[in-house]
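Figure 3 (text version): structure tokens given as input.
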């Protein structure tokens, strides 16, 4: 699925400057591991992602949880940091590896 972007533009009445804001529609990926633990109210207590279900996704929402978490791959996170982007918080997420039978 290709990423979709929405552009919203407007003109400031005071300065006649045109501002364009972009929002990304992030795909939801069914990637929860059976090791994920939930609180009684349905929120995530311990988030664990299934590495086999993530595959080559670099930017996605986690399907099946109440929280609006967006996950980025290590490659994407490093790219953000190299470009001195701000306005986000990075937090390491556990991944469950599939065990060989």
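Below: residues designed for each position.
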């Amino acid at each position: 699925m290709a990423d979709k972007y929405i552009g919203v533009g407007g003109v400031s009445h005071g300065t006649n400057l045109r501002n364009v804001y972009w929002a990304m529609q992030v795909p939801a990926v069914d990637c929860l591991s059976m090791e994920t633990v939930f609180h009684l109210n349905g929120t995530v207590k311990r988030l664990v992602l299934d590495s086999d279900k993530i595959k080559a996704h670099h930017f996605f929402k986690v399907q099946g949880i109440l929280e609006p978490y967006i996950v980025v791959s290590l490659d994407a996170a490093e790219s953000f940091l190299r470009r001195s982007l701000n306005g986000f918080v990075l937090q390491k997420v556990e991944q469950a590896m599939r065990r060989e039978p």
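The mean pLDDT is 85.
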